[in-house]
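re: that chain from earlier
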Amino acid sequence: MHARLSSFVRRSLLVLSAWVAFSATASTGHSEEARSPDSGAEIEFTASIWADNWFAFYVNGELVGEDSTPVTEIRSFNSDTFTFRAAYPFTLSVVTRDYIENDSGLEYIGSFFGLFPVSDSFTFFQQIGDGGFIAQVTEKESGRVVATTSRDWRGLVVHRAPLNPECEKSTQPLADCEFYAVDAPDGWKTDSYDDAGWVKATEYTAEEIGARFGYNDIDWVPSASLIWTDDIKADNTILWRHRVSAPD
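^ sequence. v structure.
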């Protein structure tokens, strides 16, 4: 009798434990295997980028995406979409570059609209280009947008030219155009880097940037803005940073 009673008690406790576990899962809507994004688990994200002309995209210092068109391509107006894995919070670091032929900061030097060379004295199409950049990051499974480019991003200019825009039609642009260039600071892509001294991004419309071609291939959410510094012509290479926290 005692043995049968003990067996009955054990079975009852097992049933009770299973019911408690089921009730907890049902009330929260999550199991141990399906953890919420803020639990520290890595999840998959989709990043969509358009840049005039080129970008490299890092997450916590690791390169996860790069413009599919080389920076040496004069007309690079394509968009790119790729995936990466990360756990909240994480830091986005991006290099953006507008196309320039050399340190003069000019494009189409001595050429017919960049299509073929003419001569050093031919400066009709020679000009100062302009840049622009837009991005949005989405949780792949939920479809929730968790990061977009905006004035909250911080940037650091590492190449600026020409400092004297009157050199635009010079037949010796490398000699006549002045430029500013510095190396990227050590550790700038890491999560712990202090970017408090960097400038806040300036937002632009598609018309102001001249966004076209691949720009319209992406369904940008309203919060995603085209950004650059306050000088879309002279500032050619910019480092960007933005920290992404777990959504509420």
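Confidence is low (pLDDT under 50) at residues 1-36.
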